[in-house]
């Protein structure tokens, strides 16, 4: 049995250990240790202040660049898309502000906006592929044949594009009589909505990617579905540009990455990942102009971009009379 003297010795030992610890602690925290901690803290504070100052400078430079590009945009895009009609396609989660700013620049380029097509979340839902297939089979013209490998979204995009796009300037601004019921059927099904008069066909399309990549188990399928839509509209018109902001990391739900990673689609569809910047909206116009010439490119600052913008061609200089006569 443990007696009182054992308890007393144990208690004394505990207090002795505490006293030794306090003495050792105060001995270690003498001037050298305190000075080191203070110097480290001062260095971290100075570094933090320097980084904040650098950030403020970068933000000021960015604001100045944006203001300059915005002021020069009308001149930079003037006449680039004269005679073209452009359809705007909004994907679920895309930015209304980016779309409105891009629309303004497109109009400044001399093009006419035919209207807006807004895809609903239901359109991209993998569980609703049966609805898409049913509508397409019911509404497609008899002469519309799909490849055996076509997905539900490939087929839906081809049918919608036939209703809204053309590569024949003579047919632009006219409806396609063969697909007259397509838009109303898709709207009634809750798959999309429209604004303006998109049924009067456009020659070019700009599709806006979601502000943030899709997440969840269906993210990759949804991103690939948007790539299919962009490709379908490109095939029927004179060209399509998928525009958005660069993803901070490589993720499977990013629509722009989905196009860039698919070599066949990236040969036809252009992407711009700086649509949230004034300069990027100028690049969208340049990319559309490049599409009219039968070329495509991947532009911006994110993964898979080949350059900030397409090669800019200047007008040929006006010949002058060198003879002096």
What's the order of the H and E elements?
Answer: HHEHEHHHHEEHEHHEHE
CATH topology of the largest domain: Rossmann fold
How would you sum up the major sheet? 7 strands, mixed
Q: How would you write the strand order of the largest sheet?
A: 3-2-1-4-5-6-7
CATH architecture classification name of the largest domain? 3-Layer(aba) Sandwich
What do these coordinates show?
This protein has 325 residues and is α/β, with parallel strands linked by helices. The chain folds into two domains: 8-77; 79-299, Rossmann fold (3-Layer(aba) Sandwich). It is built from eleven helices and seven strands. The protein has a seven-stranded mixed β-sheet, with helices on both faces. Helix 3 links the parallel strand 1 (85-90) and strand 2 (112-119). Helix 5 crosses helix 6 (152-164) and helix 8 packs across helix 9 (255-261). The protein is globular. The termini are far apart. The model is unreliable at 315-325 (pLDDT under 50).
Task: Write the SSE topology.
Layout: H1 4-28, H2 31-77, E1 85-90, H3 96-108, E2 112-119, H4 121-124, H5 129-139, H6 152-164, H7 182-188, E3 192-196, E4 204-208, H8 219-236, E5 239-243, H9 255-261, H10 263-266, E6 270-272, H11 278-292, E7 298-299
Parallel strand pairs: 1-2, 1-4, 4-5, 5-6, 6-7
Antiparallel strand pairs: 2-3
């Amino acid at each position: 049995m443990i007696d009182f003297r054992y308890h007393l010795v144990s208690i004394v030992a505990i207090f002795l250990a505490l006293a030794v610890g306090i003495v050792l602690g105060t001995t270690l925290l003498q001037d050298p240790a305190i000075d080191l901690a203070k110097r480290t803290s001062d260095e971290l504070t100075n570094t933090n202040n320097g980084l904040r100052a650098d950030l403020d400078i970068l933000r000021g430079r960015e604001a100045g660049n944006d203001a300059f590009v915005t002021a020069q945009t009308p001149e930079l895009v003037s006449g680039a898309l004269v005679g073209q009609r452009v359809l705007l396609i909004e994907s679920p989660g895309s930015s209304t502000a980016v779309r409105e700013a891009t629309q303004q620049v497109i109009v400044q380029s001399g093009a006419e906006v035919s209207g807006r097509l807004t895809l609903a979340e239901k359109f991209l839902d993998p569980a609703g592929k049966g609805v898409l297939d049913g509508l397409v089979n019911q509404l497609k013209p008899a002469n519309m044949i799909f490849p055996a490998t076509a997905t539900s979204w490939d087929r839906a995009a081809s049918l919608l594009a036939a209703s809204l796009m053309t590569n024949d300037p003579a047919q632009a601004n006219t409806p396609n009589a063969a697909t007259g019921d397509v838009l109303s059927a898709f709207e009634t099904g809750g798959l999309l909505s429209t604004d303006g008069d998109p049924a009067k066909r456009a020659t070019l399309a700009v599709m806006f990617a979601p502000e943030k990549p899709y997440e969840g188990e269906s993210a990759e399928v949804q991103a690939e579905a948007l790539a299919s839509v962009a490709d379908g509209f490109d095939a029927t018109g004179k060209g399509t540009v998928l525009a958005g902001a660069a993803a901070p990391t490589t993720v499977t739900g990013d629509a722009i990455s989905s196009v860039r990673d698919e070599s066949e689609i990236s040969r036809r569809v252009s992407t711009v990942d700086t649509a949230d910047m004034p300069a990027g909206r100028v690049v969208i116009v340049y990319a559309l102009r490049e599409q009219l010439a039968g070329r495509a490119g991947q532009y911006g600052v994110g993964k898979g971009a080949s350059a900030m913008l397409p090669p800019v061609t200047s007008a040929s200089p006006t010949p002058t009379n060198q003879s002096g006569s």
